[in-house]
Amino acid sequence: MTKQKTDEIVDEEIRDEELEEMRNIGIMAHIDAGKTTATERMLYYSGRTYKIGEVHDGDAEMDWMDQEKERGITITSAATTCYWQDHQINIIDTPGHVDFTAEVERSLRVLDGAVALFSGVEMVESQSEKVWRQADRYNVPRIAFVNKLDRTESRYDKTIEMIEERLGVTTLPLQLVYRDESDKLIGMIDLINPSLMTWDQDTEGAEYERSPIPDDVKDKAARWREDLVEKAAEYDDELMMQFLEEEEISRDLLVRAIRKATIVGSCVPVLGGSALKNVGVQPILDAVIDYLPSPNDVPAVEGFRVDGDEDGEKLKRYPSPEEPLASLAFKVTTDQYTGTLIYLRLYSGTLEEGDNVFNPNSGNTERISRMFHMHANRRERVEKAKAGDIVAVVGPDHTSTGETLCSKEDPIVLQRIDFPEPVISVAIEPRKESDESRLAEAIQKLAKEDPTFKVENDPDTNQTIISGMGELHLEILTKRLKEEFDVEALVGKPSVTYKETLSSDSDIDEEFAKQSGGRGQYARVKIHFQPLERGAGFEFENEVKEGRVPKEYIKSVREGIEESLGNGQLAGYSVTDVKATLYDGSHHPVDSSDMAFKAAGSRATTRALKGSSLLLEPIMEGEVFVPGDHVGDVMEDISKRRGKVTGIESREGIQLVEFRLPLAESFGYATRLRSITRGRGTYSLSFSHFQRVPEKVKEEILNKRGY
Question: Whole-model pTM?
Answer without folding.
Answer: 0.74
